[in-house]
Amino acid sequence: MDELTSAFVNESRDQLVAMEDGLLTLEQNPDDKDNLNAIFRAAHTIKGGSGVIECRYIESFTHKVENVLDRLRNGEITATGELASVMLACCDHMGDLLEVLVAGRAEPPADLKAKGDALTTELSTRYMNEAVAQPAKDGVPVEQVDDVVASGGGAVTTEAWHISLRFGQNVLRQGMDPLSFLRFLAGQGEIVSMETIPDAMPAAAAMDPESCYLGFEIRFQTRGKKADIERVFEFCRDDCTLNILPPRSKVSEYVALIESLPEDNLRLGEILVRCGALTQAELDQGLGLQGEIARRIADETSESGEPAPPKGPPIGEILVEQKSIQKEVVEAAAQKQATVTEKRAVEARTIRVQADKLDQLIDLVGELVIAGASASLLAQKSAKTDLIESTSVLSRLVENIRDSALQLRMVQIGETFHRFNRVVRDVSKELGKEIELVINGAETELDKTVVEKIGDPLMHLVRNSLDHGIEPAAVRVAQGKPACGRVTLNARHDSGNVVIEISDDGGGLNKEKITAKALERGVIQPGQTLSDAEIVNLIFEPGFSTVEKVSNLSGRGVGMDVVRRNILALRGTVDVASVEGQGATFTIRLPLTLAIIDGFLTAVDKASYVIPLDMVVECIELDADSADRTYINLRGEVLPFVRLREWFEVTGDPPTRENVVVVQCAGRKAGIVVDQLLGEFQTVIKPLGSLFRNMRGIGGSTILGSGEVALILDVQALVNRCVKREEQAAHAGNATRRHEMSLLADHA
């Protein structure tokens, strides 16, 4: 795939996302003209790009979609839920066609072509039936005159048709001469004025002599109909953008035309003149009046000693006061200017970079971090002050480079979240439920690699909430709940991690049914006592399902164990909490990045261990009288801890002084007992081999400046171990006390 095709594919995928979001919004707000124009522009951009790379099967299908959207935009058809469904199906098909292009195939396969033909037929039969033309009054169609009367006279005063024409770049390659169409148009009436628009013309060095870069704004008088003008450009209709406004068109139609102008560098006056909303003479008169007012204000302010304003009132206000144009048209043109300015400013700050280049940069930065640590270690051993200072500056610069490089791969999770709008819409219709999606924390950033890999687990959890969690509307109403259920996606940062929550206000998890299924499958043994949290987390066991009827969405016992396995592969965790009758919440904790972190280096005997610095709260000395306990009193708070010597079965006697690193994860505190505290350390995360993949308490490895390997601790697993051990001890203590009380009662 060449560079041009690759750029088209990437751009088209972005446009399809925007188009899908717009169609989902269309169902909720069918009268939003800005949204309609945005949907049309997305389809038009894809069609134009496919023509440039000469991909005919994408171009022809998208052209049919564009025609329907054009009728929708012009008010010829009405936005309905059925139309949105068809258009969403067209978006899916266009995405499939893009994959065909990526695969390098000249034509789509037979099944995909049949699907496209069926969609094309549906578009043509249901939404492209032509309206019956009515007799004209003085060259203006009856329906247009009626619209002007019905709008209370809200029309632009002009007795000529306005034609906005942009020829496509390939029109010359198709053997057509743009000037011949203009000559033929002149034979059908009178061209009152015509302005050539060369804005799309590149620099001479980049110009292609076989490409057409011209557009035209034409004022045309004729007693014919709109269809007669369209027939002039019939043979090049697929290779040009044509907008035709009849005499005395409504203000809203001029507003739509201004918004659809492709040029980016138009001043307000030029926009209004080119779209035929006012004449050049009216513009010149307004500019002259603006200059006169500016001079008068300057004279008045100079007498008072105040600084003079740089110019008079805005030209739009003057034109409205002169009654040369309606206020709505001026506001639309001003809005276009603001939009164009903002868009160009954003584009000037944005550049597309291939993901593999970023990955290569991160790898090199990681090696630089390791080399910098090695240089710092050698400088410390040399005890040369100037060398130590030099390596200190180098380390600081390397740290800044590391942070900047990692920031390049940080993306907002909102793009992933917004994809589920379509999922919720389709699944709710399939299940016959009323469900809304609420998104919070869409601006939360995390590593692009993590975002890409978390999509599938999130998809399964959302579909699980839609199918299992939310009850049918009748059941919800009977329980006193709103008929419309709610699924919430929430993301936030917490202790160097990203926390993603998927919650619903449905029926929650049935703990009795889960326990019965676990006993049936042998997951737990009869008489085994589990906490509520342990019971609901049984749903992550392989093949576990409490659904009695298998559906297209769930019930086969496949998925939740895969969700947990995929999240664990990202060094993350997933838990579920549920309140029966009120809903369930799945909580996913993920690291911000999978590449480089700030670590806290510790040692046990001769081995080194790294604790993520974001999770470290403080460090304290372990009391000598805590040798036989697994907890300490931390300022009135019971702090459970784990000894790494015992956890990793390190032989030998512990040192006289041991240290406790207090860590916090998921709102819970615990201590990690180590022999030595070695300070902060920039940690380049290296994956563990398959031999150590299932080792508990280890999340990865890194290379020290000395060349030795240090293990990165899985703080979440260690904290869970400490908390669970204390809960079991407390439960055993309570059971012992109950037994003693029972014996005392029997003796009495």
Please tell me about this protein's structure.
With 748 residues, this protein is an alpha+beta fold. The protein has 5 domains: 3-127, Four Helix Bundle (Hemerythrin (Met), subunit A); 137-278; 355-409, Helix Hairpins, CATH 1.10.287; 411-591, Heat Shock Protein 90 (2-Layer Sandwich); 597-729, Beta Barrel (OB fold (Dihydrolipoamide Acetyltransferase, E2P)), CATH 2.40.50. Helices cover 48% and strands 19% of the residues. The protein has a 5-stranded mixed sheet with strand order 8-10-11-13-12. A 5-stranded mixed sheet has the order 21-14-15-23-22. The chain has a 5-stranded mixed sheet with strand order 16-19-20-18-17. α1 runs antiparallel to α4 (81-102) and α17 (420-431) runs parallel beside α18 (448-469).
